Records
---
Amino acid sequence: MSTQLKVAIDAGHGPDTPGKRCPDDSMREFQFNSVVARYVRDGLSDYIGVETIFTHADDGSRDVPLKERTDKANAWKADVLVSIHANAYGSDWNDAQGIETYVYTTRPAEAAKLAEAVQRNLLLETGRKNRGVKADNLHMLRESNMTAILVECGFMTNRDEARLLKDDDYRRKCAMGIVAGIVEVYGLKKKAPNPTSTPMQPVYGGKFKDVPDDHYAKGATERLAAKGIINGMADDLFGFGRSITREDVAVMVDRAVTYLEQKISQN
Ligand SMILES: [Zn+2]
């Protein structure tokens, strides 16, 4: 399947970026940005011919500098870059609220079109106040070679919106708004539906991000993956809730038996 659209997804900042948090330190901006980034990636994976990369460190291991982010998107030759943020006004609680989307100061036509579509869909999904599409001289928009927008999905310094920004349902809605805007502007087509698929699963720890931490099979899936006996459906997706074929069971049991035989012969 040929690639139709390459989308670089940027979760603004890193976990340790100074400032960039709720006034009571109950949430850091990266926590919101990075989870929405994953949901955007998952949402876009439902469409034909879309490739995605993250320009930030998804595991939060470091605060990737802005230049490295745009260098990565440029080198990968992304068609689109979406930088995801939560807003702040000052450093104390106040009434500033709403969603806004940015393009570079020159208001490139394609970016402006994408920004309008994403902004409209973000408002549709969330019902928040419309602060409009704005232009600013921001690094991610200035130094990127592709169509680039930056979304501010609500204010960490507003008590109501801070509550929303911490809420998984709100994060999903923001991701859906971003995805819907991209789909609309680029005319993306959905892949054939898989009746047993469960897209946009919450994110959990361990190798497989779609198996809940408190699920009875969590330990088993992680241990079997570590031994190479079971593989996920993608790097970090187990395929939670999906069914398995008889031939796949045979392969897994064969791997397990081989694993044990090797253990025994080593002793
Ligand atoms: Zn930000």
---
Amino acid sequence: MSVRELVVLGTASQVPTRHRNHNGYLLRWDGEGILFDPGEGTQRQMLRAGVAAHDLNRLCVTHFHGDHSLGLAGVIQRINLDRVPHPVVAHYPRSGQRFFDRLRYATAYRETVQLVQEPVSGGGGTLAGTPAYELWARRLSHPVEAYGYALVEPDGRRMLPERLAAHGIAGPDVGRLQREGSLGGVSLDEVSEVRRGQRFAFVMDTRLCEGVYELAEGCDMLVIESTFLDEDERLAVEHGHLTAGQAARVAADAGVRHLVLTHFSQRYADPAEFERQARAAGFDGELTVARDLMRVSLPKRRQAV
Ligand SMILES: [Zn+2]
């Protein structure tokens, strides 16, 4: 069984609180682990959440403010201490290369693992493609250069056993039909249906901008910052952030199925208010106001069209 879930390591913006660690999120996508925005304390939060350094294949940093990147130093050293047996790829804004270099080499340690640096620049673009997903980035709008990330699984085809049986197709012929598109006058369309690919996006620290909408479009799960409540929208715009209502309206317009709100300002004591404002803004899909150490499964695939 392939696992696709979000493991929330921390949910605080700017400073940790008694109940919230700095940001940090692991996305498990089949056999891969993608760590987004490791803030300070991420290494310990991983331990508490049951995430090992071996689970990490990619590091994706939206921007170089401390709550999104201070944890790189510890996480990178731990990857090396544990001698992770596969290469780890890091994506981050190219304009912050000097910060990445400092965090990567914050103190002395023995490098044992291949850490591949693949920075993002310009408007973003496609960063990687595997059979399970395409990873791309889009520029966001924040006082320092920031990028959001999206994983998009290509559509596939699901073979329908009863139709295969009706046409007497079995064994190695199924593979031949899949490769060649038809077999003995039977087309692939007749014995299979579209399997809709899944889509995930991670949007941190930004005002509303085109990149936010592009990333959110049609997501099965959208993890998005809502630093402020709606009554503080002026502050949000000034500091390059979103309110709960803004984030929820983006999600509603984009047809998001499961919305995860996070990156909360320390000024708010009651998380329920984020949920109330997101609902008031018209989002009626699944909604999670993130708490540290929670796990959120991706929704089941959409039905074939
Ligand atoms: Zn932040």
